[in-house]
Amino acid sequence: xxxxxxxxxxxxxxxxxxxxxxxxxxxxxxxxxxxxxxxxxxxxxxxxxxxxxxxxxxxxxxxxxxxxxxxxxxxxxxxxxxxxxxxxxxxxxxxxxxxxxxxxxxxxxxxxxxxxxxxxxxxxxxxxxxxxxxxxxxxxxxxxxxxxxxxxxxxxxxxxxxxxxxxxxxxxxxxxxxxxxxxxxxxxxxxxxxxxxxxxxxxxxxxxxxxxxxxxxxxxxxxxxxxxxxxxxxxxxxxxxxxxxxxxxxxxxxxxxxxxxxxxxxxxxxxxxxxxxxxxxxxxxxxxxxxxxxxxxxxxxxxxxxxxxxxxxxxxxxxxxxxxxxxxxxxxxxxxxxxxxxxxxxxxxxxxxxxxxxxxxxxxxxxxxxxxxxxxxxxxxxxxxxxxxxxxxxx
Length: 395
Hints:
This protein is mainly β. The chain has a domain at 2-274: YVTN repeat-like/Quinoprotein amine dehydrogenase (Methylamine Dehydrogenase, Chain H), CATH 2.130.10.10. 10% of the residues lie in helices and 36% in strands. It contains two helices and 26 strands. The longest helix is centred in the last third of the chain and has 33 residues, at 359-391. Residues 359-386 form a coiled coil. Belongs to the WD repeat coronin family. This is Coronin.
């Protein structure tokens, strides 16, 4: 999970890049991706799977692509949006001339063909990242100076939160062209920035304000007033941040439709949203097929212009993760992109007496070393697993 301008969320568990159950951390300006094993490790993890270098300032936004394998978006205080292929450690795209100030948040649409971002310059932008173009934008959809947030709905509309000129909190629903708001509602005079968490399966958006002690939720429909207030969850203590469980992590036997993780000063509290039902049977209307962890596209396919809808799974029997979720980072060989070697010059008095190795021999030695290292890592993991079972009393 990452704290940042968006509050707390769980990008490591969402999107097509999460097939390996990864976690992300920030050290300096580098992004680190970690592999969390299925067993309980008996020693600290010190080596990330891959480190991504590209930002010059602190990064506050990380979000996985919803359909392409291992494509990760990052945005930071340098006003840059960078797209990565975590599977190779490469930078795919760099959007460096789009935003003129600090980026508040970024959100993919359902198939990952577009981005919506909000910025301190008061613009909301819809961006085609592969063309590196702004396809639509709106200046000051909410007139106040406080931070904005924007997300895509399942139908492609844009839901925003912000402040009025009189510092009242406000929400809005917009057509992607941003001509006129479909709905615009004032809420209250609290000064906490509203963080929207959206469930596309039920079309419910949950609004959590930093410093609030409540969660308000609304349903987005095709009928006026389009954004319908449903209810409010209230508690005694204010939240410092909020996380949102992916849909496949919910307990369907208890009719749980959402689960939050409320950050306190010294603890993290789970909050379950349930729909009371008398029947113990699976509730089809509450749990339509939902996006699973399997990608619909490879990173290269998406980058070349191909789009695809998410691969859906049923939650009827609960979600069972795949056995092999290991992320393998395959870096491209830098020697492959070098120009061909020129003619070999004859040995002169200035040459050393060391034997000359051909490129093929060097590559073969490198492959052998890599295989030896992988074999040792596998053996260490197996030994850790066995030791974990022994110390837990399961063996």
